Amino acid sequence: MPSLQAVFWDVDGTLAETELQGHRLAYNRAFKEFGLDWIWDEDLYTDLLTIPGGRQRMQSYSERLGQRLNDASLDRLRVIKQRHYLDVVASGAVQLRPGVPDLLVELNASGVQQWIVTSSGKASVKALLRSLSTDIKDVFQGMVTADDVEHHKPNPHPYLRALEWSDVSSDHALAVEDSAAGLQSACSARLRCLMTPSAWDQDWQLFSERAQAVVDHLGGEQAPTVHHGPTCAEGRITLEYLQSLLSFPLR
């Protein structure tokens, strides 16, 4: 069985619950500053997350209300929202998902490369890393963000770039994802994948059989529920568990 040499982490919904705890709050603050009376509660935002991309999300919602925003307004809202998101993250409001800190530290201690592979921009990722404790924020060897690739997930380009920059072959690497788009991206790059679905992603079950394992979280106070894949004997996802997934065939 190939040895695990690199783990590629998605960010939003995988490393941390950035959507509901971070992006949603930033959107609402941006709307208020811009003079809009929009409020995206958790249920509405979860529904809107089926629309890829923040700009498209705001445009679709404005059309739903019969208040179509022009391009200049959408661009301005994106800038304001990004500023508020960085403030939210800096405040410590965005937390890592259960089991993530322990696994990050274990992989780092074992010499496994860890890379961030995300459709978010570099500024957002760096803000999240700055908010983490020192023993966690320094475990990553690098990142591939929306600023580094022309085509985003579900296109395989982000993961192909991560394989190139890490100098690791796909047989020795594993992706950790939460969404259908991320899973498709990883599989198209011939990567094996551990999936920890976000509660807001309604499409993950349509593609989950392509993942080598699907769990509801990586550990914590309660052991993960394994929806698909090998049992989690140690009560949390470990390096040994990830290593075992490399023996499973690509799907």
Descriptive overview:
This protein is of the alpha/beta class. It has helices at 18-34, 42-48, 54-64, 71-90, 100-109, 122-130, 134-137, 157-166, 180-188, 204-207, 239-245; strands at residues 6-9, 113-117, 142-144, 173-177, 192-195, 213-215, 226-228. It contains 11 helices and 7 strands. The protein folds into 2 domains: 6-17 and 95-245, 3-Layer(aba) Sandwich (Rossmann fold); 19-90, Putative phosphatase, domain 2 (DNA polymerase, domain 1). It has a 7-stranded mixed beta sheet with strand order 3-2-1-4-5-6-7, with helices on both faces.
The CATH topology of the largest domain turns out to be Rossmann fold
CATH class of the largest domain: Alpha Beta
Largest sheet: 7 strands, mixed
The chain-level structural class is alpha/beta
Examine the secondary-structure arrangement and name the CATH architecture of the largest domain.
3-Layer(aba) Sandwich
How many distinct beta strands?
7
**Helix content, binned percent:** 40-55%
Number of helices: 11
| Distance between the first and last residues' Cα | 17 Å
Instruction: Name the beta content range.
Output: 5-15%
C-alpha geometry: globular
The main sheet orders its strands as: 3-2-1-4-5-6-7
Poorly predicted runs: none
Within CATH, the superfamily of the largest domain carries the name: HAD superfamily/HAD-like
Topology:
Elements (H helix, E strand, L loop, with lengths): L5 E4 L8 H17 L7 H7 L5 H11 L6 H20 L9 H10 L3 E5 L4 H9 L3 H4 L4 E3 L12 H10 L6 E5 L2 H9 L3 E4 L8 H4 L5 E3 L10 E3 L10 H7 L6
Parallel strand pairs: 1-2, 1-4, 2-3, 4-5, 5-6
Antiparallel strand pairs: 6-7
Helix pairs in contact: 1-4, 3-4, 4-6
